[in-house]
TrEMBL record:
The keyword Oxidoreductase does not apply. SUPFAM superfamilies: P-loop containing nucleoside triphosphate hydrolases. GO terms for molecular function: ATP binding. Signal peptide: none annotated. It comes from Adlercreutzia muris. The keyword Acyltransferase does not apply. Residues 1-21 are annotated as: Disordered. Residues 17-199 form the Orc1-like AAA ATPase domain. Keywords: ATP-binding, Nucleotide-binding. It comes from the Bacteria. This is ATP-binding protein.
Length: 392
């Protein structure tokens, strides 16, 4: 029998623990979008690496698809145009729906024509043309102002969905990677389709690192009021217990109680750790034999090694000598580090001289600024890893 645990970026867990509140609240909004055929406040989900943002987004995407929605999925990345990626994803989904004859009729043809205009505007050379054999819709999505054009595109998409008796879900993962101009355009477009005299059934969920809310607010001041924000934190002990217990029961095995407690403690509520520990522990057993402290101890040891390889070492190795020095100075603190302290530990007179280094580490996704004057690691457990690596 296979191992039920599923460690790795974006890998669906066998049991999605402790996220019931968020998912049910967002799904309630989605049902409303469908019933009223108009948008609801867009949602932002943020959290540290490995906290379960992508799998939460996938859960919503699956839900939308199971309801027959038009579901668009984009992963933003640095240096890539978000508009282009969105256009591409919308095209792929529309083509799929067309060949399944799920979307037809005038509103749908119009959405395709608007998509064509949009695409021609963002990429006049046609290098990214994706074979839409249709004339562009004059006067739609061709102003050259990305925020207006994106609004036209989402509006037309929403109309087409409404016409077919359905709605649209747009998920963008790693949203903090998008450029500030793209984020501004997205904010304006979402604002407009929510506010317009003809609201459309389009629902948006974006996910990213804890910096995301601040990045969005920097792009447009009203972003703070426009989105509903959810933060994904570590799982509480009850949820962590469920994340371990449910899959093992499915497997036809069970945990001895001190073994389970040790596994819960080792993971400290961090979803990625739970999957990794669960996986390594399950490798040690033969169901239906129960899991004892022996397997847990061996499993945790293996899980630590796997995480060091997969999660930490790659990040650490990617940093420059200076970057490492900065992070070593951070690792002394239990939580966030004050820039002044880091400067002092690095033997600098003030924190001012560190801003280039700091920005670089933020840009590389290694650290983030939880508040002014502070920095913290984007991966839980990074400080421990650095301290251990230093001893080796
Ligand atoms: N609620 C949960 N219960 C159990 N396991 C979970 C839960 N959420 C996430 N996981 C597991 O944690 C791991 C990381 O999840 P995911 O990739 O979604 O995190 P993320 O926040 O998107 O991380 P990153 O910022 O690196 O993209 C996966 O192996 C996933 O199966
Ligand atoms: Mg992710």
């Amino acid at each position: 029998m296979g191992n039920p645990f599923n460690p790795g970026a974006g890998r669906k867990p066998p049991y999605l623990a402790g996220r019931g509140k968020v998912t049910s609240s967002v799904k309630t909004d989605m049902r409303r979008v469908y019933e009223d055929s108009e948008g609801m406040r867009p949602v932002i989900v943020s959290g540290l690496r490995g906290m379960g943002k992508t799998v939460l987004l996938r859960e919503l995407d699956d839900f939308a698809r199971s309801q027959g929605w038009v579901a668009i999925w984009v992963e933003a990345s640095k240096g890539d145009s978000l508009a282009r990626k969105l256009a591409q994803a919308i095209y792929v989904e529309l083509r799929r729906l067309r060949s399944a004859e799920r979307l037809t009729g005038r509103a749908f043809e119009h959405a395709l024509a608007v998509l064509r205009s949009f695409q021609l505007k963002i990429d006049p050379s046609g290098a990214y043309s994706f074979g839409i054999d249709i004339d562009p819709a004059k006067g739609y999505a061709d102003s050259g102002d990305l925020s207006l054009d994106l609004g036209d595109l989402l509006g037309a998409l929403g109309e087409a969905a409404r016409d077919a008796g359905t709605a649209v879900l747009i998920c963008i993962d790693e949203l903090q990677e998008a450029s500030i101009d793209d984020l501004r355009a997205l904010n304006v477009a979402l604002h407009n389709i929510g506010q317009g005299s003809a609201p459309v059934p389009v629902f948006f969920v974006g996910a990213g690192l804890p910096t995301l809310p601040a990045v969005l607010a920097e792009a447009s001041t009203y972003a703070e009021r426009m989105y509903r924000f959810y933060t994904l934190d570590t799982l509480d002990a009850g949820a962590a217990r469920a994340a371990y217990v449910e899959p093992v029961e499915e497997l036809g095995s069970r945990w001895e109680s001190d073994a389970l407690n040790a596994a819960i403690e080792a993971a400290a509520g961090y979803p990625y750790f739970i999957q990794q520990c669960g996986f390594c522990i399950c490798e040690q057993i033969e169901p239906p034999a129960a899991i004892t402290v022996v397997e847990v101890t061996a499993g945790i040891e293996l899980a630590r090694e796997e995480l060091a390889r997969g999660l930490y070492r790659s990040r650490w190795d990617r940093a420059t000598v200076k970057g490492k020095e900065f992070m070593r100075a951070m690792a002394i603190d239990d939580g966030a580090s004050q820039l002044g302290d880091i400067a002092q530990r690095m033997g600098k007179k003030s924190a001012n001289g560190l801003s280039v280094l700091r920005d670089r580490l933020i840009r590389d996704g290694l650290i983030y600024a939880p508040e002014r004057g502070y920095v913290a690691f984007t991966v839980p457990g990074m400080a421990d890893y650095i301290e251990r690596a230093e001893e080796m």
